[in-house]
Design brief:
Keywords: Hydrogen ion transport, Ion transport, Transport. It is built from 3 helices and 2 strands. It is mainly alpha-helical. Strand 1 and strand 2 form a beta hairpin.
Length: 155
Amino acid sequence: MGTSAGQRQRVPPPSAVDCCCGVLSHNSTPNSSTSIMSTQIQELIAAETKASSIVAEARASRSKRMKEAKKEAEALCNAFRAEKEAAYQASMQKSMGSTGKEGDTLGAQTDAAIQSMTDDYSKNKEVVGDLLVHEVCHIVYSVPEGLKSREMQQA
């Protein structure tokens, strides 16, 4: 059978058909194709189960790593905080230690000044009280000259 340039050549039908589950033969029986599909479905279910377990393990591992990282970060933060607190306390001790004697001297001077003021108050409170009572009770009632002259001019 020769073919000319204008004629199409017929392709015989394939002996096997590709499907999503694999290759099926035209000559295969319905029972064999069902068993192949059933086997392949079981394989898919097994693969899905395995994938799910892998994903679950990965999530658990990630969670564990995150918890460990958090603990390490907290430990670092606590160590840094303790270091800075110790440095602060040392600087406070240094500044307080240098003014210890000066602070004692200043405290003694302040106490002496307070005692002196208290003594002066005790001595003078009677005199000041009497002076205030005398000034309030002995008021001179007189009209100032400037006011008198204004009243005379208005009248």
